[in-house]
Prior knowledge:
Blueprint: E1 2-11, E2 16-22, H1 30-43, E3 47-48, E4 51-64
Antiparallel strand pairs: 1-2, 1-4, 3-4
Amino acid sequence: MAKTLELQFLNTDGKTVKLNVDSPIEPVDSAAINAAMDDILASNIFFTTGGEFVAKKGARIVERNVTDVGLA
C-alpha cells in the first residue's frame, strides 16, 4: 500500500494547491508538518497560475491500494 503525505495550501486566488511527499515517516509528527508548511510559506518559492501560496489549508495521509485484475 503506497502512502503519500499531502500538504494543502491556498494560493492568491483562494484555490487549493497540493504538494505531495512520497513514503512519509510514520507516525507523522503534526508539529513538524506544521513547521515545514510555515517554512514553505515563508520562503515563497512556489508560484502557481493562481498566484503564490498564501495560507495553510491542511495536511493528510493518502493511502492507495492497487490490485491487478487478471485478463483471460
